[in-house]
Amino acid sequence: MEQEKRFHVNLAVLATGMMAFAGVLIETAMNVTFPTLIEEFSITTSQVQWVTTIYLLMISIVVPLSSYLIKNYSKRQLFMASSVFFIGGVLIDAFAFSFSMLLLGRLLQGVATGIALPLMFNIILTKVPLEKRGMMIGIGNLTTSIAPAMGPTYGGILTTQLNWKYIYLLLIPILIISTVIGLYAIPKEHKEKVDTINTKAAIYLSVMFTGLLFFFSYLQSPFGWASLVVGLIAGMMFYKANKEKTLLNLSVFSNKMFTIYLLSFLVYQILLLGVSFVLPNYIQIVSDVPASRAGLMMFPGALTGALFAPISGKMLDKFGFKKPIGIGIAAASLGWLGLILVIQTSNMILITTCHVIFMIGVGLSYSNVMTVGLSSIKTNEQDDGNAIFSTLQQFMGAISTSFVAIILDVFQKSNSDYQVGTSIGAKVALSILFGLLIISGISVYKTFSKKA
Fold it and tell me: Where in the cell is it found (predicted)?
């Protein structure tokens, strides 16, 4: 009986893991399709970035609600909701005949992934025995680490050999299989509603995120600045409403170590999403390389980062946090500086090598920065800290994509030669992000002398 129960739990983790994997896979798979989408739908670089941005925005809005959803709805109900949203979104995009239709599908996929990711880890934390939990969390993290590595290659090959819509068509059978497994493995449970959601805080948070995102997406227009004002007002309203009934526990920001390591984590997220937008677009537009080769160029670095993540955890356990994080920041800085210096050569070997060095640094420090940040706050605050990490991780990814897209767009429009404009814009975007990496790196290095 115990063995059968464990088998069902493993299948439940597999089902939610397949869905989370699919969600993260298409997050990066679409980046290599942007030049194709720009041509097919007659849109600009600043418009096409919404394919990624609207997806990440929806995840960042849904994740803060995960605690409420898990308390008030059964795992089966949440799994079914995620399946319906995901399959619906994938079907819409598989047959999208307009850019607006494509964005609608991406919106639904973002909602689905925002439900599936916390659900997978909740099943692990509540159903898996303690002695097996570490391994299962590792498998869960590996799922979401390998998917971004595979995404650009998967998207690039399908876009070049068939059509970008096959990115979605080939996911349909995977999602159907995961739904069948989940319905079999996740039992029906009666769930009493034990909590009410702070609706006002949730709405204000959504408006704040959306307003700030529109600001970064439309910096050049009055609409963008009006969106900033709306976002800031919504932020103040959220802060007030959140005090009445906590949606996100903001008191953790009073811990300086938590704040510094959170900011470092977010800078890494900005760089990861920024580079996954800049490099595939640059190499396709400037060097006239097909999407399949652009995707393959990203694969060694992304895979390296995924493989170094578990190694970094072992280094943290054995040597403490200073060595893996310190070496990681140094490697990431060296690799990123290399990208700035070699990108205009369009030499794919040099660009790939620098990206691999950067991703070694990310692999050594990215997850460890989160571990140190969360371990610096009280145990009873760690769920709140985790929610803030997860929420801002997705939101800053969306901000990054919008920001680098508008930089590219500005230089593409201001230069008579589209390729030259793209080349200059890519170097400027990478240089600005390098400044963020240096500032956050110095802040982290300063903490080394304060904590053993």
Answer: Cell membrane
Find the radius of gyration of the CA atoms of the chain: 21
- Rounded-to-integer distance, Cα 283 and Cα 428, Å: 16
* DSSP 8-state class, residue 245: S
**Token code pair at residue 268:** 């890494």
Could you count the other beta carbons within 10 Å of the beta carbon of residue 194?
8
Helices (H), 30-98: 34-41, 45-48, 50-62, 66-72, 75-94
DSSP state at residue 248: S
Say yes or no: do domains 1-196 and 253-452 share a fold.
yes
Phi and psi angles of residue 338, each rounded to the nearest 5 degrees, phi first: -60, -40
% helix, strand, coil for the chain, step of 5: 85, 0, 15
pLDDT digits (tens, 9 = 90+) for 259-309: 888 898 889 888 888 888 888 888 888 877 777 777 778 888 878 877 777
Where does 1-196 sit in CATH, by number?
1.20.1250.20
Which residue, among 88, 91, 90, 86, has the nearest Cα to 112 in the 3D structure? 86
- What residue ranges do the domains of the chain occupy? 1-196, 198-246, 253-452
Please state, as a whole number, how many other Cβ atoms lie within 10 Å of the Cβ of residue 196. Answer: 9
This prediction's pTM? 0.78
Q: 111 — phi, psi (to 5°)?
A: -60, -45
Dist. CA 344–CA 428, nearest whole Å: 11
Question: HSE of 441 in the Cβ direction (CA atoms, 13 Å)?
Answer: 23
Number of residues assigned to the chain: 452
* Domain 253-452 grouped into CATH 3.30.70.380: no
The backbone torsions φ and ψ at residue 221, rounded to the nearest 5 degrees and listed phi first, read -115, 155
Q: Which residues contact 272 (CB under 8 A, 6 or more apart)?
A: 148, 362, 397
